[in-house]
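Late entry, written up from scratch paper. The run itself happened at the end of the previous shift, but nothing got recorded in the book at the time, so transcribing now.
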Amino acid sequence: MPLFEKIEAFKNVDPALQWAIFIVASLIVIVALFSLVISIWLSIKYVVYNRTMNKAGINGEQTARKILDKHGLEHIKVSVVGSLMFGNSYSHFFKKVRLRRWTVKKNSISSMAMGAQKSSLAILDKEGDKDMKTRIILTPFIYFGPLMFLPIIIIGVLLDIILFQFSGVVSVVAAVLGLSFYVASFIMSLMVLKTEVKAQNRALEILEKDNLATSEEREMMKSLFKLYNIQYVNDLILEFLELILRVLMIFAKAQNSSSSSSNN
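Output as recorded:
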C-alpha cells in the first residue's frame, strides 16, 4: 500500500493487513469526530438545563429520595459524590443511588432528571426486572472482560513467534478468543443501556404521575437522555475500534519482526 511504503514499521507487512489498519484508523477518526460533536452538544444542553430551574423547586437528591421512599425503598441511600467514576449511578451491591455534587444540590431540570432516572433503576431492581437481574449478575464481566482482551492477544503472538516463527495460527486463535471476550462484554454493555433506557422511561412516567415535572420539563429531560444514550453507544463503538486497531498493530509489528529475522 503506497501510504505505508516509506514507514519502516510496515515495510514487511502484508498489504491486506495494511489496508485493514488504514480502514480501522479511518473509522476511528470519523467516529471520534462524531463523538466530539455529540459531546459538545450534550455539554451545552446539560449546562442549559442545569441552569433552568424546575417548577417543583426540588433538587436531584430530594427527587431521588421522594421517588425511593414512595416505592418502599427507604433503605436505599442517596449518596452525593464528586467522582466521575461513581457519579450519577445506582449500585445494587452497595444499595446506593450516587449523584454528582455539582448538579445534585440544584433545583434544576438536569438535577431532577438524574435523580429520577437513577432511583428508577432501584425500582427496576426491586421489581425483579429480567434485564436488570441479568445486568447485576454480569456486571463484573462487563468491566473485567475487556481487560483480558489485549493480554490474550499478546500471549498468542509471542507464542506464535517463539514456537512457530509467526505462522499466524496461534495468533489468529488468540485473536478470536480475545475478541470473543470483548464482543461478549460489548453485548452486555448494550444490555446496560437497555436498563438505563427503561429507567429513563420509568422516571418520566413517575414525574408525570406525581406531578413533579411539567410536560415541557419532561421533554427537556427526554432530549437529554437521548443524547446520553447516543454518546454511550458511540463510546462503545470507538473503544471497540481502538482495540481492533491495537490488535492489528500487534500483528503488523510481529509480522514485520518475523520477516526481518528471516531476511537476516
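The two ends are 24 Å apart (CA to CA).
(Scratch paper discarded after transcription.)
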